[in-house]
Design brief:
This protein is an all-alpha fold. It is built from 14 helices and no strands.
């Protein structure tokens, strides 16, 4: 670490903190916001509120960055994150200290929460409830992760709540549509974290960290990763072909969502990496499986969002 601390004098300030925020992971939280906004306009019939959308997107990026930095702080302090990987943050690289990370994450949590409160004043108390839950989960995320609740935490925060919050920002109303329709994307967000925990399983367990990966073991983690990667397509199929749930105001997904199945080759590539983890074709294949899963999640999310707008144009013709 001493050599890395010497090196940090040559690292630009902006680069340090961008790396600390781990921007490669941000699509996991921003895509649900874009998706939820699209649903609100196309399915919910809301008029597009551009300023509110930008505020919501900025708040999500800031809060996700805050959670990433705080997670790095706790992981490093606990001694479970000491090896640098291509997707590591700035703490393990020695670019910022634990104290700087704690202060930086605190500032970002306050800033993101402030933007959220502005949106609450522009909408209503429904968004306040969503925001309080989301920020609380982000703050205690490391504790949840250490006790096998991390997968659910990101499923909720960077999947369901992100989409629902974006819907409320545009419509000022609660709906089950962004909750149910975002489940496939939320599953892939959990897959990103699981890939990370699966890779770190051997180093996490001796430190007393219990993740879903460590509880399942290597083979169980493979099956779970398959579930999180293949499951979104199964859920999509059920939502497209399934019946309307009138009591919850849920309609069947438009057939345009079959677009998302164009990402099957991408999912297949991930499954191949996972299956050949012990004898990878490239040494980094399994190590950066979380980053590769994040890219797949981005592709899947873009296709789902595109499906919403394709439906809009088809109906408008």
């Amino acid at each position: 670490m001493d050599s890395m601390k010497t090196e940090d004098k040559n690292i630009p300030f902006v680069k340090k903190w961008i790396t600390a925020a781990r921007p490669w992971a941000l699509p996991a939280s921003t895509m649900p916001v874009i998706f939820g906004t699209s649903l609100a306009i196309v399915i919910g019939g809301a008029s597009f509120q551009f300023f509110r959308f930008v505020l919501a997107l900025c708040a999500m990026v800031i809060l996700h960055s805050a959670a990433n930095i705080l997670s790095d702080f706790f992981d490093f302090r606990r001694g479970i994150d000491r090896n640098v990987t291509p997707v590591s943050g700035a703490v393990v690289r020695g670019w910022i200290s634990k104290e700087e990370a704690a202060v930086g994450s605190g500032i970002l949590f306050v800033l993101g929460s402030a933007l959220g409160l502005v949106l609450v004043f522009m909408t209503n108390e429904i968004l306040l409830v969503i925001g309080v839950i989301g920020v609380a989960v982000g703050v205690i995320y490391s504790f949840l992760k250490y006790h096998a609740w991390g997968d659910f935490a990101v499923f909720l925060d960077f999947g369901i709540l992100g989409s629902l919050g974006a819907w409320v920002v545009q419509t000022k109303e609660f709906s089950w549509i962004p909750v149910i329709w975002t489940v496939p994307m939320a599953m892939l967000v959990s897959a990103i974290l699981h890939a990370n925990n699966w890779r770190d399983m051997k180093s996490d367990t001796p430190k007393g960290v219990r993740t879903v990966a460590s509880l399942l073991g290597d083979q169980g983690s493979l099956y779970y990763y398959y579930f999180l990667t293949i499951g979104p397509f199964v859920v999509l199929l059920c939502l497209i072909l399934g019946p309307r749930i009138a009591d919850l105001g849920i309609r069947a997904m438009p057939f345009s969502f079959f677009m998302a199945f164009l990402s099957i080759p991408s999912a297949g590539s991930l499954l191949k990496r996972a299956l050949s983890r012990h004898k990878p074709s490239s040494p980094m294949d399994f190590i950066v499986l979380d980053g590769a899963t994040s890219k797949h999640n981005l592709v899947f999310g873009i296709l789902c969002t595109g499906a919403v707008w394709l439906h809009f144009f088809i109906v408008s013709i």
